[in-house]
């Protein structure tokens, strides 16, 4: 049960962040949620009196993000949206909102950006003579199947380009909305061009509502695992993140549930608290688990070299020290008992067909 005297009066039902009052790296002023920045035409969701969701349409000039991280099994990704309405308090993408003079707190989950030209930009990129295909990841920063996907359908349009060009793609999501695109995903899977990773943090509905208030319930995600798996799609379950002293006791249960639902592989990521996420998460602890605050943060520091976050390559996704080693061992034993692999999926790149852009000089090549 939540404590009677919450330390953050701006806590909103159905929202993950306790407030917008998060220390910022760029000396931006803290924001108060008075609602006067909202445009009525762009408000969606929520009933009167609650914080509404605002969506701003933007038109970037490029859409693929490249990385050289040794921690990631891909070197390129695409994000249809910025900000995420799921409201996961631990989300490592929250600090990106600070670059736009917005708070990584409530702003991140209520002031969103959509990129409706993403699919067309992708086709133009694939059409370039020097483009070479490799697996492209969708949903590495913000969820491609958050609620506003029902309205904008940008992720579906991206998958349509993937199928048109026979380009390999991996989808990561916390939402059962991914099943809406099972027709496209099945066709890609038949050609060994896709896999879907579904994040499951906890099996407890009450814990899930606190950690990730607008993400679909754990049971619905497991149903999505089953549906996709039955359709012949490789489904990977990622226990991400493992929150010490809050969800770590569920590792074996999640692995067993994933296997029973038809998942083929499983992995975990210990909780990361970069930049503004660290104070925000501590606010959340003070609101929901004040009696565990000291214990949780002590374990976090033990896994992160004495700090609240470790951004170093090789250790940021794995953690370090006895606690991280214990989680790794427990997962390995549980996965072995359940007959699950560890996420190695080979996708084809040799089927790629460069798209033709009508009226473009690229047609000459």
Q: Any key phrases for this structure?
A:
alpha/beta, seven-stranded mixed beta sheet, 30% helix, 11 strands, TIM Barrel, four-stranded mixed beta sheet, 365 residues, globular, 11 helices
Helix and strand topology:
Layout: E1 43-44, E2 53-57, E3 64-66, E4 76-78, E5 81-82, H1 106-110, E6 111-114, H2 118-127, E7 136-138, H3 149-152, H4 154-165, E8 169-173, H5 182-190, E9 194-199, H6 205-211, H7 218-230, E10 235-242, H8 251-260, E11 265-270, H9 277-288, H10 293-303, H11 321-338
Parallel strand pairs: 2-6, 4-7, 7-8, 8-9, 9-10, 10-11
Antiparallel strand pairs: 1-2, 3-4, 5-6
Helix pairs in contact: 2-4, 4-5, 8-11
Explain what you see.
Strand 1 and strand 2 form a beta hairpin. It is globular, with a radius of gyration of 20 Å. The longest helix is centred in the last third of the chain and has 18 residues, at 321-338. The strands form 2 sheets. Strands 3-4-7-8-9-10-11 form a 7-stranded mixed β-sheet. Residues 1-5 and 30-49 have low confidence and may be disordered. By secondary structure, the chain is an alpha/beta fold. The chain has helices spanning 106-110, 118-127, 149-152, 154-165, 182-190, 205-211, 218-230, 251-260, 277-288, 293-303, 321-338; strands at 43-44, 53-57, 64-66, 76-78, 81-82, 111-114, 136-138, 169-173, 194-199, 235-242, 265-270. The protein has one domain (53-339): Alpha-Beta Barrel (TIM Barrel). Helix content is 30%, strand content 13%. The protein has 11 helices and 11 strands. Helix 4 (154-165) runs parallel beside helix 5 (182-190) and helix 8 packs parallel to helix 11 (321-338).
